[in-house]
Amino acid sequence: MECPHLSSSVCITPDSAKFPNGSPSSWCCSVCRSNKSPWVCLTCSSVHCGRYVNGHAKKHYEDAQVPLANHKKSEKQDKPQHTVCMDCSSYSTYCYRCDDFVVNDTKLGLVQKVREHLQNLENSAFTADRHRKRKLLENSSLNTKLLKVNGSTTGICATGLRNLGNTCFMNAILQSLSNIEQFCCYFKELPAVELRNGKTAGRRTYHTRSQGDNNVSLVEEFRKTLCALWQGSQTAFSPESLFYVVWKIMPNFRGYQQQDAHEFMRYLLDHLHLELQGGFNGVSRSAILQENSTLSASNKCCINGASTVVTAIFGGILQNEVNCLICGTESRKFDPFLDLSLDIPSQFRNKRSKNQENGPVCSLRDCLRSFTDLEELDETELYMCHKCKKKQKSTKKFWIQKLPKVLCLHLKRFHWTAYLRNKVDTYVEFPLRGLDMKCYLLEPENSGPENCLYDLAAVVVHHGSGVGSGHYTAYATHEGRWFHFNDSTVTLTDEDTVVKAKAYILFYVERQAKAGSDKL
After folding, report:
1. Cα 520 from Cα 512, distance rounded (Å)
2. How far apart are CA 368 and CA 356, in angstroms?
3. pLDDT single digits (tens) 239-291
4. Per residue in 231-245, is it b (16+ CB within 10 Å) or e — as a string?
5. Cα–Cα distance between 211 and 471 in angstroms, integer?
6. Which pLDDT value is given to residue 175?
7. Per the database record, which ranges form the UBP-type domain (predicted)?
8. In which band, very low, low, confident or very high, does the pLDDT at 16 lie, cut at 50, 70 and 90?
9. Res 9 pLDDT > 80
10. How far is CA 436 from CA 258, 404, 429, 460, in A?
11. Helix (H, G, I), strand (E, B) or coil at 454
12. Higher pLDDT, 78 or 175
């Protein structure tokens, strides 16, 4: 958005401003001392926290407007407004009066000068910190704090994702998808799309709500985000460009309120699928798919049109079998799926932990069995029997006709009551490797023993009591090691910690090579 308030609000320059010490991304709010989401006022250089921490940056703007209300219009124009601030982590600029992000600059280019100055401060602080750590590591007594894998010393190569304001739901899904190797590699190998031209050529583009939909590409921003992860950077990546594209094409996710991670994943995969069907950067989707020899035609599952990498990897097929209880007429329907949503059986819903001694532990097999077992439909779901010519009582059963390369299992932890959506906090036991899906297949005799075995690649966990609150994190395995992704923080963990997690979404990858392992 072209902001008309820059000339009256941007008054500081790198030479005259008194910035705090240290890296800008770690600056503390001058009111509450929080170092989360720091913003610097471009009028007075004071630092405050963002609106989704304690909102002191917005309060600073509002307080500055109170004395102005008693002045004449001419006096208002002369006095600085404190309306424009800059994110100290992503360096994007925001105007509170316009209520949007800003893409233009002052005639003297002050915004860009401040941006470059903050970037230099960040780089200097990072270099100094790296030098300090190198000095510390020269002391042999501290070397024991490094991770040891297979007898050699190594470091964490994973990159975290900055929380842009309750965007942990997006970060958990992105980190999970980035560790599904075949899916991630496909996007990272795509050709880049250049969206910048004219005045913004050669400069960083900041997407805003006022830009047209034709200027954004979900596939391109998704590709950039995946490329930024697993490069060994110690600084968390800010997925702001991807988030603004999400705002553009997925209205349900506009704003900064907490969202459902599973709902976001489905929207993301669906929109990636639709955009890939249309082609990009002059290269058609089908041509790119043909270059990837691992995605053969026999493994594709079409959902909403032609096949893409989304359906080739996540796509499976269900057979929905309905039988009329009056005349015995059987109806069969084949439905494509990208994930399976599984109910947690009611008899386990009071079982909150693995070690609780009030009955058997719920397992993933119990949830899968509940999904595929024969079910009698209730009075509100009467089946329209074509032979009886009216709605009749019936039974329903699901079979899996085709398994996907990546099996995504969503545990339905949120249920609506009369007034609100409650969470089912039951612990569900799940295997790390050797999930056997053969008994749920329609024709198991046509599948080899290895084709039905799956190993866990990632887990999304919801912490908290409700879908509109709480926090999302993810566990994922990379090159034989398990990591815990908590927004910008990435830590190494172990299998014992992973299996104790109360899973919300599980990503299982089809086993390729033969290996001896226990089955579920």
Report:
1. 18
2. 22
3. 988 998 998 888 888 877 889 999 999 999 999 999 998 754 444 444 444 44
4. eeeeebbbbbbbbbb
5. 30
6. 96
7. 1-121
8. low
9. yes
10. 35, 13, 14, 21
11. strand
12. 175
Give the span between the Cα atoms of 349 and 365, in whole angstroms.
15
| pLDDT over 90, % of the chain | 30
Q: Report the topology of domain 6-65+80-126.
A: Herpes Virus-1 (3.30.40)
- Predicted confidence at residue 430, as pLDDT, reads 96
Only one residue has tokens 């959506």, namely 421
To which residue do tokens 């401060």 refer? 121
**Residue spans per domain, the chain:** 6-65+80-126
pLDDT at 359: 65
503 sits in which H/E element: strand 503-510
Distance between CA atoms of residues 311 and 307, nearest Å: 6
- Tens digits of residue pLDDT in 316-351: 999 888 888 888 888 888 889 999 999 999 888 765
Give pTM, 2 decimals. 0.66
Residue 106, CA distances (Å) to 116, 198, 276 in order: 15, 18, 39
Residues 6 or more apart whose CB falls under 8 angstroms from that of 294 comprise 182
Q: Which helix (H) or strand (E) holds 224?
A: helix 218-228
Residue type, 243: F
Determine the residue type at 262: H
Per annotation, catalytic residue among 95, 168, 385, 452: 168
Q: Is there a catalytic annotation at residue 484?
A: no
Token pair for residue 172? 């958990």
471 is catalytic: yes
Q: Which helix (H) or strand (E) holds 85?
A: strand 84-87
Q: How confident is the model at residue 132 (pLDDT cuts 50, 70, 90)?
A: low
Residue 516 phi/psi, 5-degree rounding, is: -75, 125
User: Tokens 């190198």 appear where?
Assistant: 134
Beta pairing partners, 147: 154
One-letter amino acid for residue 405 of the chain: K
- Exactly one of 5, 463, 471, 478 is catalytic; name it: 471
Give residue-wise pLDDT tens across range 76-89: 445 668 899 998 87
Q: b/e per residue, 143-154, with b = 16+ CB within 10 A?
A: eeeeeeeeeeee
Specify the pLDDT at position 310. 94
Those residues whose C-beta lies under 8 Å from the C-beta of residue 167, and which sit 6 or more positions away, are 239, 243, 256
- Joined together, the tokens standing for residue 272 give 């990636």
The model's confidence at residue 432, banded by pLDDT at 50, 70 and 90, is: very high
d(CA 491, CA 485): 7
Give the span between the Cα atoms of 63 and 49, in whole angstroms.
Answer: 15
